[in-house]
Amino acid sequence: MELLELALSMELDLEKFYKEQADLNKENSLNVVFTMLAKEEKNHANILMTKADKLTLPLEDSNILLDVQSIFKNMDDFTSGKQNFPKQLDTYRMALEKEQESLKFYQDLYAVASEEQSKTVFQYLINQEDKHCVILEELVKLVSRPDEWVESAEFGKREDY
């Protein structure tokens, strides 16, 4: 039972973190991303509370990857001064690290789970946390690419002059 309580605490902490980030980004489209992630973590907490009470719950697959695709497509509308990027990037990297820790934690729980219902719940949570990692990896890539990627005149396609 201690492991389930730890997992529940972790999910509630992530929900709180994402809500705080959503509040900090009310002015831009990242508010939607963090609000979605907070909702997902709350759903995970509900699943774990249900599991702790030995009740069954239908595990519906999340559509967060489809929902967030439109947000990434519209990121060109997002404007922020250069001074905000390191803070944003640090936030995304920290969130990604937390999601990776959650993923590892659920993989470990899955490995030691003995009953089939527990394995099903943990596999579901593994899949969900993996999706969150994909979203955050894309955010990190999107924000860091302008600082890290430089086109080389030697290798890029250029018009002859």
3D architecture notes:
- The chain is mostly helical.
- The protein has one domain (2-146): Ferritin, core subunit, four-helix bundle (Ferritin, Up-down Bundle), CATH 1.20.1260.
- It contains five helices and no strands.
- The chain has helices spanning 2-24, 30-52, 64-73, 85-112, 116-148.
- The longest helix has 33 residues, at 116-148.
- The radius of gyration is 19 Å and the shape is elongated.
- Residues 75-86 have low confidence and may be disordered.
Mind sketching the topology for me?
Blueprint: H1 2-24, H2 30-52, H3 64-73, H4 85-112, H5 116-148
Task: Give the tags.
161 residues, mainly alpha, Ferritin
Total number of domains: 1
**Could you give me the name of the CATH homologous superfamily?**
Ferritin, core subunit, four-helix bundle
Strand-residue proportion: under 5%
Give the second-level CATH assignment, the architecture.
Up-down Bundle
What is the C-level CATH assignment?
Mainly Alpha
* Helical coverage, percent range: over 70%
3D shape: elongated
Main pleated-sheet profile: none
What is the typical, i.e. mean, pLDDT? 77
Number of strands: 0
Class per helix and strand makeup: mainly alpha
Helical stretch count? 5
- The sequence of SSEs as H and E is HHHHH
Please mark out the parts with pLDDT under 50 across 5 or more consecutive residues, or reply none: 75-86
Q: Using only CA atoms, what is the Rg?
A: 19 Å
Kindly identify the CATH topology.
Answer: Ferritin
Q: Termini distance?
A: 71 Å
